[in-house]
Amino acid sequence: MRKPQPDTHALLSDTLTPGVPLDQIGQTLASFYDELITEGVPPHLASLVRRVKQSQPNPTAERQVASRPACESRPVHLAIVVEDDPEIRQLAETLLEETELEVVGCPSAEDALNVLRQRGGEVALVFADIRLAGAMDGLQLARAVATLWPRARLVLTSGHGVQRPDLPKDAVFIAKPWRPGDVLIEAERAAKEPAPPIS
Questions:
Q1: Cα angle at 31 between 25 and 36, to 5 degrees?
Q2: Is residue 199 part of a domain?
Q3: pTM of the shown model
Q4: According to the model, what pLDDT value does residue 76 have?
Q5: Run of H or E residues at 18
Q6: Could you give the CA distance from residue 87 to residue 16 in angstroms, rounded to a whole number?
């Protein structure tokens, strides 16, 4: 017994309304065409055709993902490790790479300033030793960062008997040998907490 056919005029008049996407109209027409084709086909083949059709990816959804604006992607948060001892610098870099931060290592304050000049708006954390090789030490670097890039979180460290150096406001001091947990706490704060307002 033949299955009653849908009223094609009613079907098209229902879908061809203002504001209905062409993709939706096309899908409706395709499903109507599928019903015509599968009629007269043995039931097991018709169900196989339907299963194959359902397993195909949805091109509309794929286009929506592909067309997602770039502004929805997550912003980059950068951590700069400033340490003249290569082994300690590598240790700090490896530790910070376990966080959401992108990590750049610098052997001197001057190298760190070069990175800041290029990517200062992305820098969430500056983790610097106070004693550095080069003309500028970590305290001078911290003061420059606090003045020019005040949204970056500053963490200073030293193992030379410095108890509490004269740090910029909101900077943190961690004595060496620092514990990984203490550094990670500051990194998580830098990545997740809102940046302080620029005064």
A1: 130
A2: no
A3: 0.61
A4: 73
A5: none
A6: 69
